Amino acid sequence: MKVFGKCQNCKNEISVSVNYGTRLEIAMYEGETKSNYCKNCNKKNEFHINDLRAKESKFSLIISGLIFLIGTPLTIYLLFDYLIIPHNPYIALIIAGFIAVPMTIYGIIRKQDMIRVRAFNRAYK
Ligand SMILES: [Zn+2]
Question: Which UniProt keywords apply (predicted)?
């Protein structure tokens, strides 16, 4: 995953790739320092892993947001479609239950990402 530090020269945000989810594991398997070049000023920055932070993933936010934004109206549309034609209350009830599905998926994806961020940011080496 990617973790972030600030350029010592221009304060631009620099991303560093790591293969483990906690600072302890990174220190153990990859070493306590990570370096990368600043895309803004080209200065090579060396970071101690305690100075790097995980952030919520934009990808996770976009995917879960799309599921929520598309899934919820789609389910409501299906619900109304089945409520009006063929007037079967059981089918309507089942579909009503499905409204919770996109919301639940959204919640699970967001929660997983927060757990990942917290696991990294909580413990220092
Ligand atoms: Zn810089």
Answer: Membrane, Transmembrane, Transmembrane helix
